[in-house]
Amino acid sequence: MSDRKPVHYSDYLQLDKILNAQLPESDKEKLEAHDEMLFIIIHQAYELWFKQLAYDLDSVIKLVSTPAINDNSPAMQTVVHRLNRMGTILRVLVHQIDILETMTPLDFLDFRDLLRPASGFQSWQFKLFEGRLGLKFENRHGQEYYISQLRPAEVELIKNSESQPSLLDLINAWLSRMPFFNDASLWKEFKTQHEPIPDMHPFWSEYKQVYASTLLEAEKGNLSAFDELFISENPQRSLSAAANRTALFILLYRGFPLLQQPFQLIQQLLEIDEQMATWRFRHVNMVHRMIGGRVGTGGSTGKEYLQGALQKHYVFKDFAILTSFLIPRTKLPELGTALQNKLGFTS
Question: Residue 222 CB: number of other CB atoms within 10 A?
Answer without folding.
Answer: 17
